[in-house]
Design brief:
Layout (H helix, E strand, L loop, with lengths): L14 H13 L14 E5 L11 H6 L6 H20 L1 H6 L4 E3 L6 E6 L8 E9 L4 E8 L4 E14 L2 E15 L5 E7 L2 E5 L7 E5 L1 E6 L2 E8 L10 E8 L9 E6 L3 E6 L4 E4 L8 E3 L12 H4 L1 H8 L3 H25 L8 E4 L3 H7 L11 E4 L5 H4 L2
Parallel strand pairs: 1-2
Antiparallel strand pairs: 3-4, 3-17, 4-5, 5-6, 6-7, 7-8, 7-9, 8-11, 9-10, 11-12, 12-13, 13-14, 14-15, 15-16, 18-19
Helix pairs in contact: 6-7
C-alpha cells in the first residue's frame, strides 16, 4: 500500500487549493472545461498551439508522398500518425514535470507557423483558428504543397470525472489529402483517441490513451487500439494497430504492429523489424506573425497570452491571474456588444458546414459512429507571411 497522500507532488503553498479543486471536480456535474484550475497546474501555452504537434516530425509527414501505392501509403500515414502521439500527449510531462491545463483559447484566436525545407522534405505550413468558444473548437490546416499533402481538421473536447480520473472525449476528425503525381487524390479519414488523465490524486497528472481510432483511406483501414499498463506489453502508452484492405481493394495483406506509442514499435505480422521510433527529439514549429509586415496581430496566440504566459513561467501567479481575467472580461464584453448590435463574430480562415461528405463516405467502411459529422472548410486564404516562406 502506497504511503503517498493527496497532493504529494503539489507545491506546499498550493496543496490547499489543489485539495479543494479535487473535491470540486469530484462533485461537478457537466463539462469540466469551464472549471478554473489552481494556478500551478496551468500551462503557459494556449490550446490553439496544440495542432502543431501533428507535424513535429515533418520528415515522416513528407514521406507519405513517396509511397508507391495505397498499401504503402496507408502504412506511411499510420507511421506518421503514431509518431505524433508522443508529441501530442507526453511532451508536457517531460518538459514541465506533469500534464498542465492549457489556456482556453478565445474566439478568433490565431496561430501560424512553418517547418522550413530541409533535405528535400519541402516546406510545411501551419494555420490554426479558434472557430468556437462555447463549445471550444479549434480548426487547423497543415500543408506541404511541394509534396501534395494537406491535413485539415477540427477538434473539441468533452470532459468528465470518473473513478479518480478525468475522461476526455475528443470530438472532431481530420482529413489528409494526398495529391498523387497523376493528379488523382487519395483521402484519409483520421479519428481521434479518447484520453484519460490519471495521477490527479498526487497532483502529477499524465495522459493515457484509451479505446480505438481509425485511419481509413488508400484502400485500407488501420485500426489502432490503445491500452495502458497491464495489457499488451505490460507498459503504459501501449498500442496495437492492424492494417487491412477494404473489400475488393489492396493486395489482401494484413499488417499488425505493436509497441509503445511514446517510444517505438515493431511489426508482428505482414513484415518484420522496427515500425516507428520517436526516441529522437521532435522539431518544434517556427512561429510566424500573420500580419502583412510579419508582425503578430492582437488575436495571435503568442501576443494575446504573452503576459499570462510570462507570469506562469516565472511563478508570478497573481499577475498571470489578473492578466488572464482581463482577457476573459474583454471577450465577454465583445460578445455582449455583438449581441446588442445583432452581429456575429466572422471566422477568418474557415467556413462551417453541417456535414463532411469525405467523413461519411470513408466512415462507412467501419460503420463509424456518429455516421455524420460537421466540418470546417479552409478558405485557402493563407497570410502573405506564410505564402512567402
Amino acid at each position: 500500500m502506497s504511503n503517498e497522500t493527496a497532493g504529494d507532488a503539489v507545491p506546499a503553498a498550493q496543496r490547499g487549493s489543489w485539495t479543494s479543486f479535487l473535491k470540486s471536480i469530484a462533485s461537478f456535474s457537466g463539462d469540466l472545461y469551464s472549471m478554473t484550475a489552481p494556478p500551478f497546474i496551468l500551462s503557459p501555452t494556449s490550446l490553439t498551439e496544440f495542432p502543431a504537434y501533428w507535424c513535429e516530425r515533418p520528415e515522416l509527414f513528407s514521406a507519405i508522398a513517396g509511397a508507391k501505392d495505397g498499401e504503402q501509403r496507408s502504412l506511411a500515414v499510420l507511421k506518421w500518425f503514431i509518431s505524433t502521439l508522443k508529441d501530442q500527449y507526453t511532451t508536457r510531462n517531460e518538459k514541465m514535470g506533469s500534464e498542465k491545463k492549457p489556456l482556453n483559447p478565445v474566439l478568433g484566436e490565431l496561430f501560424y507557423g512553418v517547418w522550413p525545407d530541409k533535405n528535400g522534405r519541402g516546406t510545411t505550413t501551419l494555420l490554426v483558428e479558434q472557430v468556437s468558444h462555447h463549445p471550444p473548437i479549434t480548426a487547423y490546416i497543415i500543408e506541404n504543397k511541394s509534396k501534395g499533402l494537406r491535413l485539415v481538421g477540427h477538434n473539441a473536447q468533452k470532459t468528465s470525472f470518473s473513478s479518480g480520473s478525468i475522461s476526455v472525449k475528443q470530438i472532431g476528425h481530420a482529413i489528409l489529402t494526398v495529391t498523387l503525381p497523376s493528379g488523382e487524390k487519395d483521402e484519409f479519414l483520421i479519428t481521434l483517441p479518447r484520453l484519460r488523465i490519471d495521477g490527479l490524486w498526487y497532483g502529477s497528472p499524465y495522459i493515457e490513451l484509451s479505446d480505438s481510432t481509425y485511419i481509413i483511406g488508400g484502400g485500407h483501414v488501420s485500426t489502432v487500439e490503445y491500452k495502458g499498463k497491464g495489457y499488451f506489453s505490460g507498459k503504459s502508452h501501449s498500442f496495437k494497430a492492424a492494417v487491412t484492405a477494404m473489400p475488393g481493394q489492396g493486395r489482401g495483406n494484413e499488417y499488425v504492429i505493436e509497441g509503445t506509442w511514446h517510444e517505438k514499435s515493431k511489426y508482428h505480422k505482414g513484415s518484420s523489424g522496427e515500425f516507428h521510433n520517436v526516441e529522437d527529439a521532435a522539431e518544434e514549429v517556427n512561429v510566424l506573425g500573420g500580419e502583412s509586415d510579419g508582425d503578430m496581430g492582437p488575436f495571435e496566440t503568442r501576443k494575446l497570452w504573452s503576459a499570462v504566459a510570462k507570469g506562469i513561467r516565472e511563478g508570478d501567479f497573481d499577475t498571470a491571474s489578473k492578466e488572464k481575467s482581463k482577457i476573459e472580461n474583454d471577450q465577454r464584453q465583445m460578445r455582449k456588444d455583438e449581441q446588442a448590435a445583432g452581429t456575429k463574430w466572422a471566422l477568418k480562415h474557415f467556413e462551417h458546414q453541417e456535414s463532411d461528405p469525405v467523413y461519411e463516405r470513408l466512415g462507412k467502411y467501419v460503420k463509424i459512429v456518429p455516421a455524420t459529422e460537421d466540418v470546417y472548410v479552409f478558405l485557402d486564404n493563407w497570410p502573405s507571411s506564410l505564402i512567402s516562406t
